[in-house]
Design goal:
Layout: H1 2-21, H2 42-50, E1 83-85, E2 92-94, E3 118-122, E4 142-146, E5 152-154, E6 159-160, H3 163-172, E7 178-181, E8 186-192, E9 197-200, E10 205-214, E11 218-223, E12 229-230, E13 237-243, E14 249-256, E15 265-273, E16 276-287, H4 289-309
Parallel strand pairs: 9-16
Antiparallel strand pairs: 1-2, 3-4, 5-6, 5-7, 8-10, 10-14, 11-12, 11-15, 13-14, 15-16
Length: 317
Amino acid sequence: MPGLSGLVLLGLCLNLHTCRALPNKLPDLSTEPPARFSRPDPLDYWLDEELGGGGGRSGNGTERCGSCEPDLCPETRGCRAGLVLDSCGCCKECGNLEGQACDPGPRSGYYGLCGTGLRCQTDPRPAGGGEGGGGGEDEEEEVCVCEQQEAVCGSDGVTYTNMCQFREAAFSRPELKTRGRGPCRTVPIIKVPPHSQVNGTGSSLVFLCEVFAFPMALVEWRKEGRDVVLPGDDPHISVQSRGGPLKFELSSWLQIEGAEPQDSGTYRCIARNNLGSVSASAVLGVLGADELSSYLANSVSEMKQLIDATDYDQDFY
């Protein structure tokens, strides 16, 4: 049936012609006029990365900016590090705080610009991974670092590590003023006191005491009932101290190796400078195997009773 075959062939040709013609009728979105000024959408960053566009804000972000109309800029509030220009160089946005990731240079690209008194540089803190842990450029991160690293004494008697931390605190407390450069002179303050603990015979135990003071404090350890500064002549007790973790702080450790029941008692951390002294104490209990087992069983029982007595009849969403 040549007539039927001809009709089928003609139909296929018409369909093929239509399919080829349709794409030519679709609008060319790339020629659409740019919209009025608007801030880049974070979704665009993701699309750029997924579609191989290089990530971030397409270069310096100006490709999506259009004309600048300041009246259309969003209102900014709560900017503790001050205001900076956005990626389009038109609107103001919150500057990044100390320690936050940032874009180097004068133009915001992806992370944003550092706020007042801050500069973008490689993170001065040591990278993780330990020694020889495969360090490289991947682990380096540029963050906002305060330009004025000198400590500041506030009118509230608090020492701020640098001027940027002071500005951040003063943002929500306009009455706060600087009393002077350098740390506030103060009696020692025990920021982390030693904690009481119970353990078994033969265990290794450590007490920690962290102190802030200016002038720097001298820290010593004593055990109640013994008129001697530890470690004394006791070979299984040692004391170590070093500066930190923050400026004008001192961390001190009392360590007992191979603890015995006679080591039980109250241990006191004493910090002093020429303005005064302060102390904090903790109790140590060293128990034999049977006593420790009984103690742990009682602790678990008390905790279970506490949980059972707690009212959990609440709705959680």
